[in-house]
Amino acid sequence: MATWLLGKPINLTELKPSELSLEPIRADSLIFLQSEELVLHIEFQTDPKEDIPFRMLDYRLRVHRRYPNKEMHQVVIYLRKSNSELVQQTVFELPQTRHHFNVIRLWEVDHSELLDKPGVWPFAVLGKGGDNEAVLRDVANRIDNISDQTEQSNLGSTKPVI
Predict the structure, then answer these.
(1) Which PANTHER family match (predicted)?
(2) Which residue in 89, 103, 106, 157 has the fewest CB atoms around it within 10 Å?
(3) What SS3 state is found at 64?
(4) Is 119 in a helix, a strand, or coil?
(5) Long-range contacts: 32-35, Cβ < 8 Å, 24+?
(6) DSSP-based helix, strand, coil % in the chain, nearest 5
(7) What is the pLDDT averaged over residues 79-97?
(8) CA 63 – CA 16 distance, rounded (Å)
């Protein structure tokens, strides 16, 4: 998934959200990964929520407090199609403050693009185009044919998010 989001392969390790806690973090699913110079923050949302832009700024500040020299790449991935204007928001603004983050609306991403990178295969069924049953079968077959048990297990771990 990180390769798809960042556009290049990079070795990342998990950063526990509890390491950033000032108060509880609330998200449908939240992932923090880090390398020596980068923190990747991925937030999965089934439905839009008004507080997401503020939360993205809040997470950015928490990470900066803990890792002031690391670049941060933030992405909100919406899983369920919505016509809400909230899924278009990519900025949080206050006077003298402006914070940008990235948004991916999976229903706008062609399912074939999601089949290009193993880390996002399980999300292909949520992409644009394709017969859902056929895409699910294709993804299941691809995962079954992975010889590396760790990679196969990692892909299987995305099922709760879907």
Answers:
(1) SLL0800 PROTEIN, SLL6017 PROTEIN
(2) 157
(3) helix
(4) helix
(5) 32/63, 33/2, 34/67, 34/70, 35/10, 35/11
(6) 40, 25, 35
(7) 97
(8) 11
